[in-house]
Amino acid sequence: MALDSKIPSGPISDKWTNYKDHINLVNPANKRNIDIIVVGTGLAGGSAAATLAELGYNVKTFCFQDSPRRAHSIAAQGGINAAKNYQGDGDSTFRLFYDTIKGGDYRSREANVHRLAEVSTNIIDQCVMQGVPLAREYGGLLDNRSFGGTLVARTFYAKGQTGQQLLLGAYSAMNRQIGRGKIKSHTRHEMLDLVLVDGKARGIIARDLVTGEIERHSAHAVVIASGGYGNVFFLSTYAMGSNATAAWKIHKKGAFFANPCYTQIHPTCIPVSGDHQSKLTLMSESLRNDGRIWVPAKLEDAKAIREGKKKPADLSESERDYYLERRYPSFGNLVPRDVASRAAKERCDAGFGVNKTGEAVYLDFAAAIQRYGKEQAYIKGLDANDAKLIIKLGAAVVANKYGNLFQMYEKIVDEDPYTTPMMIYPAVHYTMGGTWVDYNLQTTIPGCFSIGESNFSDHGANRLGASALMQGLADGYFVLPYTIGDYLAPDIKTGTISTDLPEFVEAEKKVKDQIDKFINNNGTHSVDYFHKKLGKIMWDKVGMARNAKGLTEAIEEIATLRSAFHKDVKVPGTADSFNQELEKAGRVADFLELGELFAKDALHRNESCGGHFREEYQSEEGEAQRDDENFAYVAAWEYKGKPSDAVLHKEPLVFENIKLVTRSYK
Amino acid sequence: MKLTLKIWRQKNAKAEGKIVEYPLDGIEGDMSFLEMLDVLNEGLINKGEEPVSFDHDCREGICGTCSLFINGEAHGPDRGIPTCQLHMRMFKDGDVIFIEPFRAKAFPVIKDLVVDRSSFDRIQHAGGFISVNTSGNPVDANTIPIPKHDADRAFDAATCIGCGACVATCKNSSAMLFVAAKVSQFALLPQGKVEATERVLNMVNQMDAEGFGNCTNTGACEVECPKGISLENIARMNREYLSASLQG
Predict the structure, then answer these.
(1) Where in chain B is the domain with CATH 3.10.20.30?
(2) d(CA A541, CA A545)
(3) Terminus-to-terminus CA distance in chain B, angstroms?
(4) Where are the domains of chain A?
(5) A206 pairs with which residues across the strands?
(6) Contact yes or no for B137/B109 (Cβ under 8 A)
(7) Which of A93, A455, A507, B133 places its Cα 20 to 30 Å from the Cα of B240?
């Protein structure tokens, strides 16, 4: 099957406008005869559900959380990009488009990314109208900050809780439609399979997580907005419940899975403290606006710090290595995430790590506190030589900008980041790969759409900071509501899809059989036992740096672990009750398949690009080496029974507007 | 450290619950409270017993999923954080820890420590929004200047995570702080003023219909709120409600 990306013709800046002008529309009176299922209620799913319901469709939403407000979009901290150019610093739609393509290391689709940059400004307007309290300047206008991989300040924010505020905005839009009866919200429900009728997505099988009941739900189209698959690593910044089950089930029903190996390892997370660790906590990228990253310049100082014999403050400026500023003078501490993460790993592998395990670097605010303190003293006419006063004034400015992040750090680590530098280390944070979609955000299954982090489309091999929120809301508010109409236009006479069709009966039976198998397995180990083992294989061999040998081993080890899991997993409790272990078992079963495909994809891609770093393909300076001649394509995998049998389909990436060059942030 | 846990176990909404005692060893100060419960559950599973059900998700203090009444306090002894950010260094070797669900008539128990907080959602359905449709052509965001002071106060109110600690803590099981946070956020912004009257009336009516109690200004909710939502919001909601009632 040849992949048809359905990219409209014409100049890049006109594609989306022309396309919208000519797609099929559904008459408002007919929309009420059409049902749409949305799985996942984060930024993408929530905004899509609200907008589709406003348009008049009957929407059913599903989320495993107890409320749509709790989707993990809520945890995004730093901000959302938009090419508003409010700062007058030279920003434009083209520049956001260019930065995103370059940041993604030239592995994303031009037309999709340009559309994203175009609608970015609408998102800010929309959110402000909804009452999202974005940060403002004293004149009452919106404020911006700067994020990695760009030379402009285009990031809008709400302190360190931007994701929360935007999600609550989408949630409020959903609530309005729930109140009007246009959205039927199913919380504490998990989608366990997709139902195809005549090759089209026509419904889902879901489990009511409170009663355990297996339910059939039909619709004319199914939208998957279930987020990313980073929890395949067990330890990540994802929520504990974040899972790939919905995305993986549609893959097994025919949706191709694209670029699974493109995973973002975020440079600034709180380091692992011990074996009991259940998740990792991110410290926003916005901190790199003011924090300077360093390790000791001398090995003996690093050792002394690890042993507690020296403190970071004991080292003078010349005894510190601000390695990002040294290696990348023009972007400094604000290089993209993949570059910053690898640089941290490089220093720690070389023995310069600063915590007990040697896997941490410093993120230091002392210089920023001094700078802000002096600025405030000058403004207020106070004594600029009073060291204590300067620190007090500077710390107040820093607290105003990042207060909640500093508090969070202190609660977890038990150290005060105002007086001693934070310790940070990279952690799994986002997956750029996901369900393959065409320009309409439709998967290879007709009627099955995938939006937000669950699709692969916009970030290439590396996502820039503050772009996830932008993409989620762009897909949900401004793209899908148009493109889905084009698909649904011929469906106005179809009528309600019956859930008594044999396809529903069969899918339901399979789901029930799988659940019964878990419950009656009588194994010896918990779900977490297997999940942790999977995570270790993934982190050690499919993590920040990969090589052919490790990947080959990982593929085999994951397959072995998977069969051990099915033979030996122990799931207590019953199928017909609230059972958190049963929920986890289903999710980990899917991760155990996805993990193998992930490694297989990483092994096949004989180049380094963005978040995918193959040790065999690097320059003498340790920078990633792309191979545009052989790998400028999207790898879309077709399911054929086992991950090892997956068949590769290639969508060539054509760059008509941006010249492919080696990415440099020096 | 060695601990004695006394945990509320309840099979389902209809069953009767009771406190069950569990001894637990090998807990470190760097563990979070929920990681301590993970250790307990891993042990229970290995022994062939049913693990303790509890709500949790982001484990970084923002989703509002986790709850727990720990030694008589919502989210436990530390301040300004929900349970997932509570660390075991707040406890000491030999401690006895009582762990119960958030209790309120409007928060029925689902199982063990898990409660149903969908009443909060229904209050939001009644009016927790500004009625604007999605369109590609709203006015430019900067055509509505908002004084920084107002925007900041609206933001402070909007940081509520909807966990329900205020209700669990209140002797009347009142949801006033939760409802007031949303009413305040919109009341402070020009975009929200248009439907302020209907909003406050509808949300308060729904709050009453759900069976939440009245506010008697004890202020316990503010103390236990993991996000420091201020009582000022309740005062603002009362003003909004009074003025809406006079108009309506």
Answers:
(1) 3-111
(2) 8
(3) 60
(4) 267-427, 500-627
(5) A191, A215
(6) no
(7) B133
Give CATH 1.10.1060.10 domain extents, chain B.
Answer: 118-247
A1: pLDDT confidence band, cut at 50, 70 and 90? Answer: low
Task: Please indicate whether, in this complex, the C-beta atoms of B130 and A134 are within 8 angstroms of each other.
Answer: no
Give A-chain residues touching B11 at CB under 8 angstroms.
Answer: 577
**CATH class name, domain B118-247:** mainly alpha
**Residues A190/A66, Cβ–Cβ less than 8 Å:** no
Is B35 in contact with A278 (Cβ distance < 8 A)? yes
User: What are the structure tokens assigned to A277, written together?
Assistant: 């660790």
- Residue A197: partners with Cβ closer than 8 Å, 6 or more residues away: A203, A497, A501, A503
Nearest CA in chain B to A185: B121
Residue among B64, B110, B146 minimizing CB distance to A70: B64
A122 contact B CB<8A: yes
Alpha-carbon distance B114 to B108, whole Å? 9
Q: Is the pLDDT of residue A286 over 90?
A: no
Q: Is A337 a catalytic residue?
A: yes
Mapped onto helix, strand or coil, the DSSP state of residue A11 is coil
Residue A498, beta-bridge partner list: none
Tokens 């105003």 belong to which residue? A400
On whether the CB atoms of residues A40 and A63 are closer than 8 A, the answer is yes
Residue B16 CB partners (closer than 8 Å, separation 6+): B10
**Distance set, CA A205 to CA A155, A224, A503, A512, B57 (Å):** 39, 13, 11, 10, 23
Give the list of residues 6+ apart from residue A351 with CB closer than 8 angstroms, or none.
A299, A302, A303, A358
Which chain A residues touch B80 with a CB distance below 8 Å? Answer: 407
- CB count in 10 Å sphere of residue A371: 15
Cβ of B146 within 8 Å of Cβ of A478? The answer is: no
Q: What's the CA gap between B116 and B11, in Å, rounded?
A: 14
Separation of alpha carbons A42 and A62, rounded Å: 11
Whole-angstrom distance, CA of residue A259 vs CA of residue A251: 13
* A439 phi, psi to nearest 5 deg: -60, -30
Is the distance from CB of A136 to CB of B188 less than 8 angstroms? no
User: Is A533 in the B-facing interface, judged by CB distances under 8 Å?
Assistant: no
Query: What is the sign, positive or negative, of the torsion defined by CA atoms of A297, A298, A302, A307?
Result: negative
Output the CATH code of domain B3-111: 3.10.20.30
Residues in chain B: 248
Considering the entire predicted model, what is its pTM?
0.97
Q: What is the DSSP string of A226-262?
A: ----GGGGSSSSS-TT---HHHHHHHHTT--EE-TT-
- CA dihedral angle for residue A48, residue A53, residue A59, residue A63, rounded to 10 degrees: 40
| DSSP helix/strand/coil, A556 | helix
So what's the pLDDT on residue A150?
A: 87
Alpha helices (H) along A350-501: 366-380, 387-413, 468-473, 480-488
Distance CA A572, CA B50 (A): 6
Give the closest-approach CA distance of B82 to chain A in angstroms: 11
Q: How far is residue B131's CA from residue B4's CA, in Å, rounded to a whole number? A: 51
C-alpha distances (whole Å) from A507 to each of A217, A407, B243 are: 12, 48, 55
Tokens 């610093």 identify what position?
A89
Rounded-to-integer distance, Cα A143 and Cα A633, Å:
38
What CATH number does the domain located at A500-627 have?
1.20.58.100
What is the DSSP annotation of A136-165?
Answer: B-TTSSBP-B--TT-SS--EE-BTB-HHHH
pLDDT in tens, A2-58: 799 999 999 999 999 999 999 999 999 999 999 999 999 999 999 999 999 999 999
For A301, the 3-state DSSP assignment is helix
The highest-level CATH class for domain A267-427 is alpha beta
Which among B28, B151, B192 is the nearest to A136, CB-wise?
B151
Which two tokens mark A193?
């399979």
